[in-house]
Amino acid sequence: MRLLVTGGAGFIGANFVHAAVRERPDADVTVLDALTYAGSRESLATVAADVRVVEGDVADAALVDRLVGEADAVVHFAAETHVDNALAEPEPFLRSNVIGTFTVLEAVRRHGVRLHHVSTDEVYGDLELDGQDRFTESTPYNPSSPYSATKAASDMLVRAWVRSYGVAATISNCSNNYGPFQHVEKFIPRQITNVLTGRRPKLYGAGTNVRDWIHVEDHNRAVWLVLERGTIGRTYLIGADGERDNLSVLKDVLRLMGRDEDDFDHVPDRAGHDARYAIDSTPLREELHWAPKHTDFETGLAETIDWYRANESWWRSMKDGVEATYAERGR
Ligand code: NAD
Ligand code: DAU
What we know:
Keywords: Lyase, NAD. The chain has a domain of 202 residues: 3-Layer(aba) Sandwich (Rossmann fold). The protein has a 7-stranded parallel β-sheet with strand order 3-2-1-4-5-6-11, sandwiched between helices. A two-stranded parallel sheet has the order 7-10. The protein has a two-stranded parallel ribbon with strand order 8-13. It is α/β, with parallel strands linked by helices and 331 residues long. It contains 11 helices and 13 strands. The structure holds nicotinamide-adenine-dinucleotide (NAD) and 2'deoxy-thymidine-5'-diphospho-alpha-D-glucose. The site of nicotinamide-adenine-dinucleotide has 31 residues, from α1, α4 and β5.
């Protein structure tokens, strides 16, 4: 299969490409990535001989048309992804997430190529902190941030292109990923690398917000399954029953790194901060027989901490700049 992976130099995309090279020798992988601050060639260094990397914008219609014309399927990860950045400067999110997805859709429509669109549970808004309910495929869209609004818009475009033009697309909406190669702006890597660089971890507000954590490898195995066996036009929710509040996750990080559990700073809360996400992934499990392999969060977290310890050369050059930006924002 000739596979075009957009955003393949980012966190989830790079893990996807590594898994493809490792486990799918029949796949001929091309990565299209703008190599923004969030993408890095180093994330693909160990598979550089096995994949073609094209540096370019997913909103560049001529380039996307050419690459899609050479592919059998597209897995579309490319996006601006950080909520805090979206709150500070939303425009790049409109361009990459909305126009970018539109551009991919037009190309797959022209060439009759299969598309899997990777999206987020944040399109559903948030749930009550103390509730037992979870997001399902029929939960109404209710995005809170400029990031989630643009992801919701991109999902809607995909649905419309399936219905109106018969594009062969599927969508998946996944919860919070963790694992290797995640940018140090994100919660878990930020706290790990804060400890490793002698900084104090930073917790937004009281830390009661709940996220539903899933290991990136489990997310990507689900993406493969949906790509190969999913029903065209369907949306699949991906989640591993990993609900935890931020304060507990931060204390886990500190404990696993041999620090006092109270050795962190409270910083001002995020505007419009979503209270709780939780995924009901029953259809994915029952219809496509997916199940997460990383079922023990603390083990996965300890392995992730080990990865950041062992790969300081991957993240060290980004760290000071990321923390300077956080400091400007008072966090
Ligand atoms: P990331 O920010 O780590 O990587 C995004 C990649 O996309 C980067 O390599 C970047 O260079 C590239 N990119 C951005 N704009 C581009 C453009 N205009 N053209 C080409 N490339 C561009 O993001 P991630 O965490 O790996 O997320 C990947 C996808 O998964 C996104 O669509 C995101 O919405 C979705 N998602 C993420 C999570 C999560 O927890 N991280 C959960 C669910 C869904
Ligand atoms: O739910 C899926 C989404 O998960 C993805 O679509 C997004 O691309 C991804 O960034 C992530 O969004 P979140 O906003 O949940 O992730 P983030 O890592 O930014 O923050 C996780 C939680 O931790 C959130 O409640 C805010 C909080 N936080 C974050 C940072 C960076 C802190 O308390 N301190 C921090 O320093």
